[in-house]
Specification:
Strand content: 15-25%
Number of strands: 11
Shape: globular
Radius of gyration: 19 Å
Mean pLDDT: 94
Strand order of the largest sheet: 3-2-1-4-11-10-5-6-9-7-8
Helix content: 40-55%
Low-confidence stretches: none
């Protein structure tokens, strides 16, 4: 039975209200990638520019019976060239977001972080899943589950701030960030707990802004008020977090996929910290999850242009 995801419906509606933005779609050479861009275009949230080998894209569209005749198409030779050209369109002001097609994520992100020709800012790039979890009153942000493998404390500062900025665009009020670990006490034997404590103190000192932080928190006492009460944790975050910061990529990835495949959640993915948002979708994503990923990017792009 298909699970409904009302939070995504609201995100998509908000993106439609904000108006479409131009998105450079890098190498949409399979049905999933092409259909995802078309679906978002058809409901009026993006204006796709297809960047890739012209004949391959047209053959894919013909085989899938997709009408791309109204979409601009920028011809390239191969996937690396597609990534570079899509980034070039953004640098030239011809697109306000990037979308991953059927190329490898590493190829696209390599073009994004290229020193001379990429889209880097002073902020480190990080990935956020915006999860629509059945039974929750609001979406849940999980970070970082796709870009930073073993982030340092300095990396985590940017990871947290990127997630907070996204939470504000999604109108979380207030933004409540749980820095996750296996336990809720600080231990020299568990570096993630020391990082968590440092991040919270950095927030106290204004080095991280715009949210309430608490950590280290175990998963149960981050999101469950009863679990937090049993551990005598008194904070506005414990038991009520809406942003979960994983200690490393493996933990974040397992958490997000566990919610997706065991709890009926859906995951919209976006990379932040570059000049423009980068839409990352998976072949396993539902149509609604792909549309939600586009919607989040649209809302972020409008915020950047405001």
């Amino acid at each position: 039975m298909e699970v409904s995801h009302p939070h995504y419906d609201k995100l998509i509606a908000a993106a439609r209200h904000a108006g479409p933005v131009t998105v450079a779609v890098a190498h949409p050479c399979d049905r999933n990638a092409l259909e995802g861009a078309l679906d978002a275009a058809n409901i009026g949230i993006i204006k796709p520019v297809l960047v890739g080998p012209q004949e391959r894209i047209r053959q894919t569209a013909d085989a899938a019976r997709l009408d791309i005749s109204a979409l601009p198409l920028v011809d390239t030779e191969h996937s690396h060239a597609s990534a570079a050209k899509a980034v070039e369109l953004v640098r030239a002001g011809q697109a306000s977001a990037l979308m991953k097609g059927s190329l490898h994520t590493d190829e696209l992100m390599g073009a994004v972080v290229a020193t001379a020709t990429g889209l880097r800012t002073a902020r480190r790039l990080s990935h956020c899943f915006v999860m629509d979890v059945p039974g929750r009153a609001e979406p849940l942000i999980i970070t970082d589950a796709a870009v930073n493998i073993i982030p340092t404390l300095n990396d985590k500062v940017d990871i947290v701030q990127n997630a907070i900025d996204l939470a504000h665009v999604l109108r979380f009020d207030p933004v409540k960030v749980a820095i996750l670990a296996a336990v809720e006490t600080v231990s020299a034997k568990m570096p993630s707990t020391i990082d968590a404590a440092a991040l919270c103190k950095m927030a106290d000192r204004g080095q991280i802004t715009g949210a309430l932080l608490d950590g280290p928190l175990a998963m149960d006492n981050a999101i469950n008020p009863e679990a937090a009460a049993i551990k005598h944790l008194v904070s506005p975050v414990a038991g009520h977090a809406n942003v979960l910061v994983a200690p490393d990529l493996e933990a974040g990835n397992m958490l997000a996929k566990s919610l997706t495949f065991m709890a009926g959640a859906s995951a919209a993915g976006i990379v932040l910290g570059a000049r423009v948002p980068v839409i990352l979708t998976s072949r396993a994503d539902t149509v609604q999850a792909r549309l939600a990923s586009c919607a989040v990017a649209v809302l972020m792009a409008h915020r950047a242009g405001a």
